[in-house]
Design a protein that fits this description.
The chain is α/β, with parallel strands linked by helices. Among the domains are: 90 residues, no CATH class; 142 residues, no CATH class. 47% of the residues lie in helices and 17% in strands. The protein contains 14 helices and eight strands. It has a five-stranded mixed β-sheet, sandwiched between helices. Strand 2 and strand 3 form a beta hairpin. Helix 3 crosses helix 13, helix 4 packs across helix 5 and helix 7 runs antiparallel to helix 8. The longest helix is centred in the last third of the chain and has 29 residues. The chain is elongated. 33% of the residues are buried.
């Protein structure tokens, strides 16, 4: 078909095949994605469309009434957009190369209906599961959204915020978008109220101090991230090499954590391991920081910025020593924003608050599948097929409980 593959990875090839359906003898189009990785070649088959013969099949099965998208096509689109970071225009170009012509407005509307269905069916269940955790990791990231204040106002492109909460205990992540607001109440209402969470890890944004104060009656405590602290000290080291000893001590903390993971410690074993090795190092770091603060003008502004960043939140930085289930850094959730950052580079902006809400949830599903070693595309196709067949969504639909069917 002379399909344009100029924007696809070098190890990917597309092939379009037309064959008779075994079930109804109707013409069916399939597209095969061949991926070569080292010595291994894998092939994924997508059923793109079924050509209906008038009078034979007047009421074809569908996921949403009036929406022609089938589970396999939804998988093709969602894998392309979220798994491969392709823009919608690029997906349309690929479809046109396969002699499939769909207006962009129609494709966009149909797919957002599918994404909304997934969000309404699964988001509440995912949040309920995360709320049962003892410890969670929280963060937020930016997204460019096209919106306007009212129907008569012009459209503007604004930097908005997506909130996220990760529980490595239940292996689920939820990203929440609420009209781009960065207000602390979004995380309080969606993530914490009615939960069993006792500790949460975050950076030192003022929003999280407010959340801790608001949740004081529920005994929810905030922990600070040592990776952010190290970042400040690296900046200080560029101007003052005396910071090297502090950096080496923090590196030792990270090494101890790595060693605990290598030994496959339980949370109780990790707690004892930290008391034996990490506690003394943290005490030494705090003493050095106190002496630098007392030295005053002997050190520069960047050094004091790093020192104050840690000492002004000294208690929160030591919370990870209280329980082996508490992480000492927020790198896990930071990594899960990587796909949004790559996507921003390809699709540049989101067309509305509604679209941003759907996109935030789809990235929740993608990252939760990765956490549980679940194939995102196969999962999407199976879940949508089960919903189409009339099954009710329950905990078995979530990536951490999902079991592929034969």
């Amino acid at each position: 078909m002379d399909i344009d593959t100029s924007n696809l990875p070098n190890n990917v090839r597309w092939q379009l095949i037309k064959r008779k359906s075994k079930d109804d003898d109707l013409d069916t189009w399939y597209v095969y994605l061949f991926t070569y990785e080292g010595p291994k070649t894998t092939c994924t088959k997508y059923k793109i469309g079924r050509f209906n013969v008038q009078g034979n099949d007047p009421h074809p099965e569908c996921i949403i009434k009036g929406n022609p998208i089938m589970p396999s096509f939804a998988r093709f689109y969602l894998e392309s957009k979220f798994g491969m970071h392709l823009s919608e225009n690029r997906i349309l170009e690929m479809l046109e190369g396969m002699d499939t012509h769909i207006p962009q407005s129609s494709l966009n509307e149909w797919m957002h209906e599918i994404m909304k269905l997934l969000r309404l069916q699964l988001e509440g269940l995912m949040l309920d599961a995360i709320r049962q955790s003892f410890f969670a990791q929280n963060d937020e990231t930016r997204i460019l959204v096209r919106s306007r204040e009212n129907m008569n106002a012009p459209f503007k492109y604004n930097v908005e915020y997506i909130h996220a909460e990760l529980s490595q205990e239940v292996k689920l992540l939820v990203m929440k978008y609420k009209e781009g607001s960065r207000d602390h109440s979004i995380q309080e209402e969606n993530f914490f109220k009615g939960s069993k969470i006792k500790y949460f890890l975050c950076d030192r944004a003022k929003m999280y101090e407010t959340i801790e104060n608001d949740l004081a009656e529920f005994y929810v405590e905030r922990c600070s991230c040592w990776f952010h602290a190290r970042h400040y000290l690296v900046d200080a080291y560029i101007t003052d090499m005396r910071m090297k000893s502090l950096l080496l001590l923090i590196n030792a903390l990270f090494y101890i954590e790595q060693e605990s993971v290598r030994r496959k410690h339980t949370s109780e074993q990790r707690f004892k391991f930290r008391l034996k090795y990490s506690r003394r190092i943290v005490e030494k770091i705090m003493k050095k920081l106190e002496s630098i603060r007392l030295a005053g003008k002997e050190y520069g502004a960047l050094v004091h910025r790093a020192v104050n960043y840690i000492l002004d939140d000294k208690e929160a930085f030591q919370k990870f020593l209280l329980d082996g289930r508490i992480e000492m850094h927020n790198n896990a959730i930071e990594r899960m924003f990587r796909h949004i950052a790559i996507g921003r580079r390809n699709w540049l902006h989101t067309g509305s608050h509604f679209a941003a809400e759907n996109i935030a949830f789809m990235y929740s599903l993608l990252e939760s599948c990765r956490l549980n070693n679940v194939n995102f595309g196969k999962y999407i196709e199976d879940i949508l097929t089960r919903l189409m067949k009339g099954e009710k969504a329950d905990m078995s639909f979530l990536p951490n409980k999902y079991v592929p069917r034969p």
